[in-house]
Amino acid sequence: MKIVVVGSGLAGVTVAEGLAKSGRHRVTLVTSETNGYYARPRLSHGLALDDAAAAKIVLKRFDALAPGVQVLAGTEAWLIDRENQRLAIANDERLDYEILILATGSAARIPPALLPLRAEFMTLNSLDDLLTLRRRRAKFRARGRVATWAIVGGGLIGCEVASDLHRAGDAVTIFHRESRLIERQLSAAQSQALHEHFRECGIVVLYDQDLNRLPYPFDGVLVSAGFAPRVDLAKDAGLSVGRGIVVNEFLRTEDPTIYAVGDVAEIDAVLHPFVVPIRSQALWLTEHLERRTVEPWQAPAYSPVMKIHGFRPEAELVRPLGV
Amino acid sequence: MTFRKFTCQVCGHVYDEAEGDPAGGIAPGTRWEDLPADWTCPECGARKADFSPAEVTA
């Protein structure tokens, strides 16, 4: 079969490598990424690492993926021509497919009020974002200065990044819209314990901050206000989208030749944006397309991991269910 | 006594038996076999089954 995969994160790479294994398919992976394959959970504490350790975040260069996966790196997927089963990509090229797998992941969510200010703050959603932040820090260190940061958003990633910047030696203030930290995954008691931990560290947390302008004055502002699944390709092709691309329990969209996998896939109004279910989906989809299973995908039990230096919640984190 | 290392196939994190996973309540010197079945990668949450053996250290 001619299989085209869009996206080179955990979902896209796992399913592309899995399907290439038999040697019976032509697997093409289209990605706008150029750095290679890496796992996003590492980014949120890639700031306190030294340069040598940070260089190891890329696990595989694209030319080191399993044999049989043809990678078109640095290439945007433009438009799905469903009638002719063709994907238009950059440079006016077209790829024929029998099966199209959308593993486009998610972008950083930007609060609408801050959109017009996009050039004035940073996000941490890709390796390029991390490298930009690291360069910025290096400049301050070279001048012997302690950088001051405003983190907009006190959710899971915002708190991880705040903790990591503090570990790296910077001064951090969190501006959180809600009245307690990581309110989606922590109990009120856990949020309180984390607040105490941050206070002891010297990380400042300000609550009920629904910002419509950027905090001032800080050396850098990092917006960490959740994620936005990249649904445009599916939406433009007339496929159903909610917060993610709507698929059934077989990860299939209403077009029988198009699947979605990973944090972009919305199943029964639920997104599964964590490593364990994403990997499970990608491995399951390989088995399904190879006709080695007829069972639908079922979400495995999982609980999110939280990486805050010197802090561990007493009980397991809960995961968000609805979208 | 030889300690072994295991690499997470998802994110690249290395579990070193010599170091254990103190933050996760796993003492230094804990053998891979002795890690609880529900132990997960402290980096990304992947499972034990997602790890594979890395190089051997003395």
Oligomeric state, counting identical vs distinct chains: heterodimer
> How many strands, what sense, and barrel or not for the largest sheet of chain A?
5 strands, parallel
Order of helices and strands of chain A: EHEEHEEEEEEEHEHEHEEEHEEEEH
Number of helices of chain B: 0
Uncertain spans of chain A: none
Number of helix segments of chain A? 7
The two chains with the largest interface, and their residue counts, are: A-B, 17 and 14 residues
C-alpha-based Rg of chain B, rounded: 10 Å
In percent, how much strand structure appears in the residues of chain A? 15-25%
Strand elements of chain A, count: 19
Order of neighbouring strands in the sheet with most strands of chain A: 5-2-1-9-17
Would you tell me the structural class of the helices and strands of chain A? alpha/beta
Give the helix proportion of chain A (percent range).
Answer: 10-25%
Which term fits the overall shape of chain B?
globular
- Report mean pLDDT of chain B, rounded to a whole number: 88
- Estimate the mean pLDDT confidence of chain A: 94
What separation lies between the terminal Cα atoms of chain A?
34 Å
Estimate the strand proportion of chain B.
25-35%
